[in-house]
Design goal:
The structure is a single chain. By secondary structure, the protein is an alpha/beta fold. Helices cover 42% and strands 17% of the residues. It is built from 21 helices and 17 strands. A five-stranded mixed sheet has the order 7-6-5-8-11, with helices on both faces. Strands 2-1-3-4 form a four-stranded mixed sheet. The chain has a four-stranded mixed sheet with strand order 13-12-16-17. α8 crosses α10.
Length: 604
């Protein structure tokens, strides 16, 4: 069986971790390890991982089994973090003992944060969470199966339902000016509401992965906050409004406005209005990293890669500046106000929950909500049946779902053909499968195999550049970032019936989503069975339909639907649906962030 998996991998085909798990679980004779993870709140999660007996396996087969074990542990820790994982198994099994004992080195348990590579990156994230919430470090422990205590943790049952929590989020907006900000990997989207009306939208393109200092990441967020504050303050002020100020602000609000133009406009408006500058009642933000109690604590995402790799800076000291982003933005809010930050995945789930609650679809909220954002990367959000957002990393984009595709492992992570993670270097993670990187990778592969004309067009249009020195294929990001146009190009081709190769791309991404569904069901066991999809990859109905087709090939019972205009049920989301420029698919999370801060203010 293992030999067959390796054969598929050598041929460049996917070997899904879920298929391996099912196959190993069916074996009549297996070795097994019981893993008990202690979470930061002292609760426990238990998993049993089965393997073929290792005796008699050759080196390549043992290596495959080792990677399967590491991937399982990595996916679990990328989901929950925790303080300790204990392994119970027959310690007399020499092969299994050596395999489990190798985890310390593979995950860098005794290594300093800055020197951890690969699997060790998830330990960095969980230790930053530990530092924030309880103090200490993470550890692995090995015990014989005879020492296992079989007591089970019993979940506390709460009487508050998710429907009760979310049905109030879109209420009592009157008398409040609220700012919602969706911070992504290629752009930032902002919506501002006053009473029950959206009064301002702003979109800003950026490429944070190229930044080398944390201030390059923080400064645009603060500047954009000042910009929309200046815009609404001027709009509602009775002072005389000089034409140069109005023109400067109008230019700054355009999507392609330069930082200097935004800065100049803000200074003009602030100098003009002085004490008439308004303060927000609150700000809600979603940020693409691990967030705990409004503090950004992950630090291992693609967006901060350039800062991590800047050897002239102490990364942990730099990153801690970002942790206090909520405090920096508080100065633009009233004393009675607040700034609330969560990860972009939970914000998507929250947004969907609020709209579903407002629509009266209680049955779709009562078991909680599970959502994905498909854009620069895969965002994941889960709200449980009690209406709570668990304080866990939930870095599903880091899940290893593919243990195969060996030829694609040979490419540098930055090569468009590579399946290796930008941050960790690990192969087979969802970052290179379900996000725009997955589209780019599959386009480069399948165009070269099936449509040479389209393949050559990728280079003619400048979407992909071949490095003459090392032969790597890189995405065009300078002097102009062409990632969005590249994605739009492939999505438009996929709408045409005659472009079978493009349709194949989105069908395969649907398969990846189905594997993601199965892996999250295994690890999290959420009561919510359906998945709500946000983001650029589902903006076109044809592309979504192809993904759904691919997903049902893997699991016919999978339930997915798009957060499009049909989801709009609240007063602000309906306004977004009717907007002549912006769409629900684009700005839903920015509007959801308004409701997120509103709910927090109502619960104060």
């Amino acid at each position: 069986m293992v030999a067959e998996f390796i054969k598929r991998a050598n041929s460049g085909n996917c070997v899904y971790i879920t298929d391996v798990k099912k196959a190993f679980d069916r074996l009549p004779k297996t070795s097994e390890v019981v893993c008990i993870l202690q979470l930061l709140d002292k609760k426990e999660k238990t998993y049993t991982i089965k393997f073929p007996e290792l005796t008699g396996q050759n080196k390549k087969e043992i290596e495959f089994v080792r990677n399967y074990l590491y991937a399982n542990i990595y996916n679990i820790l990328s989901t929950f973090g925790g303080t300790k994982m204990t392994f119970y198994f027959n310690t007399g099994d020499r092969y299994l003992f050596e395999l489990i004992h190798s985890l310390d080195e593979a995950f860098g348990i005794k290594t300093e944060k800055e020197n951890r590579k690969g699997y060790g990156k998830c330990i960095n994230v969980t230790e930053r969470m530990i530092e924030k919430l309880c103090g200490g470090t993470f550890s692995f422990e090995i015990k014989d199966i005879s020492q296992r205590d079989h007591k089970e943790y019993i979940e506390q049952v709460k009487t508050v339902s998710a429907l009760q929590v979310f049905s109030k989020a879109a209420k009592e907006l009157q008398g409040k000016t609220l700012c919602g900000m969706d911070i992504g990997g290629t752009d930032i989207k902002i919506a501002v509401s006053k009473d029950e009306k959206i009064i301002c939208f702003k979109e800003y393109d950026w490429f944070p992965a190229q930044f080398t200092t944390i201030n390059q990441l923080i400064d645009p967020i603060v500047l954009l906050t000042r910009l929309v504050r200046a815009k609404i303050s001027l709009d509602y002020s009775s002072v005389e409004k000089p034409l140069p100020v109005l023109q400067a602000l109008d230019t700054a609000m355009q999507r392609d406005a330069k930082d200097k133009e935004i800065q100049d406009a803000v200074i003009l408006a602030e100098n003009l209005l002085k004490e008439d500058m308004q303060l927000f009642n609150g700000m809600g933000l979603c940020f693409p990293d691990v967030v705990v109690k409004d503090k950004i604590v992950g630090g291992e995402v693609y967006k901060t890669r350039g800062i991590r790799e800047n050897t002239g800076k102490n990364y942990d000291m730099e990153f801690k500046k970002l942790t206090d982003l909520d405090m920096m933005l508080c100065k633009y809010c009233k004393e009675s106000g607040a700034v609330k930050i969560i990860n972009d995945g939970p914000m998507a789930a929250f947004t969907a929950a609020v709209e579903l609650s407002a629509s009266g679809k209680a049955d779709e909220v009562e078991n909680g909500v599970f959502a994905h954002t498909l854009g620069t990367e895969l965002g994941t959000g889960w709200i449980d049946e009690n209406g709570e957002i668990p304080d866990i990393p939930l870095e599903v984009y880091n899940y290893i779902i593919d243990l195969g595709n060996y030829p694609s492992k040979a490419f540098d992570p930055d090569d468009v053909r590579s399946i290796n993670n930008f941050n960790t270097g690990l192969p087979g993670t969802l970052q290179k499968y379900t996000s725009q990187s997955g589209v780019f990778r599959l386009a480069a592969r399948y165009f070269s195999e099936d449509r040479i004309d389209l393949y050559e067009e990728l280079f003619k249009k400048g979407f992909i550049i071949k490095n003459a020195d090392n032969g790597c294929f890189f995405l065009q990001t300078e002097p102009k970032d062409l990632r969005k146009p590249f994605l739009e190009y492939i999505m438009e081709l996929a709408e045409h019936e005659d472009c079978a190769v493009c349709r194949k791309i989105f069908i395969e991404i649907g398969e990846y989503l189905a594997v993601t569904w199965e892996e999250t069901q295994y690890i999290l066991q959420p009561k919510a069975k359906s998945r709500i999809l946000f983001g650029r990859l589902v903006k076109k109905k044809a592309c979504y339909n192809l993904m759904l087709e691919g997903a049902k090939k893997i699991n016919p019972d999978i339930e997915m639907f798009v957060a499009d205009g049909d989801l709009a049920s609240t007063v602000l989301m309906k306004q977004l649906k009717e907007h002549r420029v912006y769409t629900v698919a684009q700005f839903a999370q920015a509007v959801g962030a308004i409701y997120y801060i509103n709910l927090a203010l109502l619960n104060k």
